[in-house]
Design a protein that fits this description.
Layout (H helix, E strand, L loop, with lengths): L20 E3 L4 E3 L1 H10 L6 E3 L9 H10 L3 H4 L7 H4 L11 H13 L14 H15 L5 H10 L14 H8 L2 H9 L14 H8 L2 H9 L2
Antiparallel strand pairs: 1-2, 1-3
C-alpha cells in the first residue's frame, strides 16, 4: 500500500474509526463489520479489498483514496446531508448499530437502491438519459475530477459508451489525456482496453504512445 490509513479516517457507512477495507467501485473506506455486509451485496454492487493485506493494481489504491479524500461518500449520501433528513427519520448507521438489521438495511438502501443519491431530472425515455450521462462522462474523463465521473457512472453512465461523433470511448479519452486515475475508475466499471476507436486504435495504444504510467496501469490491470 502506498499510503497508510490516517487515524482520522472513518468508515463511510457507520463512522467507525480506522477503516481497514475499501469498496473500490464506490470509492469509500469501510470497517470490518460493514465490509461483511458489502461482501453479501455481490461484486456487482461492491468490490472490496483490504487496505494492507490485499494486492492492489498500480494506481488503484490511489484512485480510491483520492475519491474518499475528496468526499465521494457524499455521492451515496447526498440526501442525508440535508438537515431536513433527520426530521424525516432518515439517518446513516453508527458504530453502535446492530449489523442485522440496522447496518445491513442502511447499506443495502445506500448502494443497491441508491436511496440517497441525487438524481438528475427524469425524462420519458430512459435510454436518452443514459446516453446523455454517457456523453457527459465522455467529456469529464479528460479532467482530474474523479467525483464527477463516479457520480455519472453511479447514475447510469456507461464506461464503454462509444461516442458516435467523437468515434471513441471514455477510456480512449482518459488514455490520450494521461488521466491515470480516471483510467483506473473506468476499469473498475468494466471499460474495455481493447475497444477500437474510429482510427482502429485501442486505449492501450494511446497510453503506450504517451509513454506514461497510465500505459503500465492499463496493461497491469487489464483496464
Amino acid at each position: 500500500m502506498s499510503k497508510r490509513v490516517r487515524s482520522r479516517e472513518v468508515c463511510a457507512d457507520c463512522s467507525a474509526p480506522e477503516p481497514r477495507w475499501a469498496s473500490v467501485n464506490r470509492g469509500v473506506l469501510i470497517c470490518d463489520e460493514c465490509c461483511s455486509i458489502h461482501r453479501g451485496l455481490g461484486r456487482h454492487s461492491s468490490q472490496v479489498r483490504h487496505l494492507t493485506h490485499s494486492s492492489w493494481p498500480p494506481s488503484q489504491l490511489q484512485m480510491v483514496q483520492t475519491l474518499y479524500g475528496n468526499g465521494a461518500n457524499s455521492i451515496w449520501e447526498h440526501s442525508l446531508l440535508d438537515p431536513s433528513s433527520s426530521a424525516s427519520g432518515k439517518r446513516k448507521a453508527n458504530p453502535q448499530d446492530r449489523v442485522h438489521p440496522n447496518k445491513t438495511e442502511f447499506i443495502k438502501a445506500k448502494y443497491q437502491m441508491l436511496a440517497y443519491v441525487h438524481r438528475m431530472p427524469c425524462r420519458d425515455d430512459d435510454s436518452v438519459t443514459a446516453k446523455d450521462l454517457s456523453k457527459q462522462l465522455h467529456s469529464s474523463v479528460r479532467t482530474g475530477n474523479l467525483e464527477t465521473c463516479l457520480r455519472l457512472l453511479s447514475l447510469g453512465g456507461q464506461a464503454n459508451f462509444f461516442h458516435p461523433e467523437k468515434g471513441n470511448t471514455p477510456l480512449h479519452i482518459a488514455a490520450k489525456a494521461g488521466q491515470i486515475l480516471q483510467a483506473e475508475l473506468l476499469a473498475v466499471y468494466g471499460a474495455d482496453p481493447g475497444a477500437l476507436d474510429s482510427s482502429g486504435k485501442t486505449p492501450i495504444d494511446y497510453a503506450s504512445e504517451r509513454k506514461t504510467a497510465v500505459g503500465k496501469t492499463m496493461f497491469a490491470t487489464g483496464a
